[in-house]
Design brief:
Blueprint: E1 8-14, E2 18-24, E3 30-37, H1 45-60, E4 65-72, E5 75-76, E6 83-85, H2 96-104, E7 108-112, H3 113-124, E8 133-138, E9 142-148, E10 151-152, H4 189-200, H5 207-210, H6 220-228, H7 232-256, E11 260-264, H8 272-285, E12 297-299, H9 306-321
Parallel strand pairs: 1-4, 4-7, 8-11, 11-12
Antiparallel strand pairs: 1-2, 2-3, 5-6, 8-9, 9-10
Helix pairs in contact: 3-9, 4-7, 6-7, 7-8
Bound molecules: zinc ion.
Zinc ion binds near residues 165, 175, 177, 179 and 182.
Length: about 325
C-alpha cells in the first residue's frame, strides 16, 4: 500500500529573538509548530536562513510543502521579494523569496510581520467577516496593518501601516527613529514601562518592591502583574497608554473609516484595562463621533501565532491566484 501525505501550508515568523514555524490548516488552525533561536543581526545571512529552513522542515514533519509564507520583522519591498532592512536580522535587500524558495523547493510569499498579523485577524480572528479592518500590534513599539475591501493595503513602497512613527506630539519624546513625539513613544510596551517608572517617582507602588528599588529594572510584565493586583501606579500607567492608544486610533479611523480596529501584541493581554481608556479617548478624539459610526476597538484573537497564520494564508492566496 502506498501512502501519499497531503501537502501542507507552512507559515514562519522571523523575529528578533526567535523563528517560529507552523503548519496551518485551511481553517487557520496551527496544527504543529517548531522553533529556533534567531542567530542575530551580525551573522552571515546563511545562518538565519538555515534556522528558517530547519524550523519549517521540522514543522512540516516530512509532509510535502505546498507553499511557505514568511513573516519578517522588517521592511519588505512592495513586490514581496526582498527584506530591505530589519533592525534585528542581517538581510539588506537580498532576494529572500527566491533564496528560501530554492531551499524548500516550494513557492514562498514574504511580507512584514504586522501585515501578516492583520491578514490573520481579518481572515480567521477578531476582524473575521469585516471588509475593512485596521490592526494595531503593541509590542515594544507599534506595528500595524490595513485591510481595505478585503485586501491588504501595502502602499507604493510596501510601507503602509507603519503607524508607530506617526507624530502625535510635535517636539515630544525622542524616538529611536530619529524623530520626536512618535505615537509608539506614548503607547506601546516601552511607553507603559516609561510611564510607570515616571509615576513611581511620585507615588508609592508595589513596583518599588518588584524592581528591588531600581526603577531601570522595571519590565512590562511587572507593570501588568501589579495592575492586575490593584496597584494604582501600574493602573495609571495603563490608563495613560490606553488613552494615547485611543488618540492615535482616532486619527487612523478619521483617515480610513474601517469596520473594526483590532489591538494585538503583548500589551493587549491587559484587555479592558488598556482598551477601556482607549475607547473613551477614541470617542473623545474622533471628529464627528456623535454623527457617525465609531468602529469597535477589540482585542486580537490569534495571539503570538498571528504572524505565521497570516503568512501561511498569504501563501495560500497567492497559490489560488496562479
Ligand atoms: Zn519614531
Amino acid at each position: 500500500m502506498t501512502f501519499t501525505a497531503t501537502p501542507v501550508w507552512v507559515g514562519v515568523d522571523v523575529g528578533g529573538t526567535k523563528v517560529l514555524a507552523g503548519v496551518v490548516d485551511d481553517l487557520g488552525r496551527v496544527v504543529r509548530t517548531a522553533r529556533r533561536t534567531t542567530p542575530g543581526r551580525r551573522v552571515d545571512i546563511a545562518h538565519v536562513e538555515d534556522a528558517l529552513e530547519a524550523a519549517v522542515l521540522e514543522a512540516a514533519a516530512g509532509a510535502p510543502i505546498a507553499g511557505v509564507g514568511v513573516a519578517a520583522a522588517g521592511f519588505v519591498d512592495v513586490t514581496g521579494q526582498r527584506v530591505m532592512f530589519a533592525p534585528h536580522l542581517p538581510w539588506q535587500g537580498e532576494d529572500v523569496r527566491q533564496r528560501l524558495s530554492d531551499r524548500w523547493g516550494a513557492p514562498v510569499v514574504l511580507d512584514n510581520d504586522a501585515n501578516c498579523a492583520a491578514v490573520a485577524e481579518s481572515t480567521y480572528g477578531a476582524a473575521r467577516g469585516c471588509r475593512s479592518a485596521i490592526t494595531v500590534t503593541m509590542g515594544t513599539g507599534i506595528g500595524g496593518g490595513i485591510v481595505m475591501d478585503g485586501r491588504l493595503v501595502r502602499g507604493a513602497n510596501g510601507m503602509a501601516g507603519e503607524f508607530g512613527h506617526m507624530q502625535v506630539v510635535p517636539g515630544g519624546r525622542a524616538c529611536e527613529c530619529g524623530g520626536h513625539g512618535c505615537w509608539e513613544q506614548y503607547s506601546s510596551g516601552n511607553a507603559l514601562v516609561r510611564s510607570a517608572r515616571e509615576l513611581m517617582s511620585e507615588k508609592p507602588s508595589v513596583l518599588e518592591e518588584s524592581t528591588g528599588g531600581e526603577p531601570p529594572r522595571l519590565t512590562g510584565p511587572m507593570v501588568s502583574d501589579a495592575a492586575a493586583a490593584g496597584d494604582l501606579v501600574a493602573r495609571e500607567a495603563f490608563i495613560s497608554v490606553g488613552d494615547w492608544l485611543g488618540v492615535g486610533v482616532a486619527n487612523l479611523v478619521a483617515a480610513l473609516d474601517p469596520d473594526v480596529v483590532v489591538v494585538g501584541g503583548g500589551v493587549s493581554a491587559a484587555g479592558d484595562r488598556l482598551l477601556g481608556p482607549a475607547r473613551d479617548a477614541l470617542v473623545r478624539s474622533l471628529v464627528g463621533a456623535a454623527h457617525r459610526g465609531v468602529p469597535p476597538l477589540v482585542p486580537a484573537m490569534l495571539g503570538p501565532e498571528a504572524g505565521l497564520v497570516g503568512a501561511a494564508e498569504l501563501a495560500r492566496q497567492a497559490q489560488s491566484r496562479r
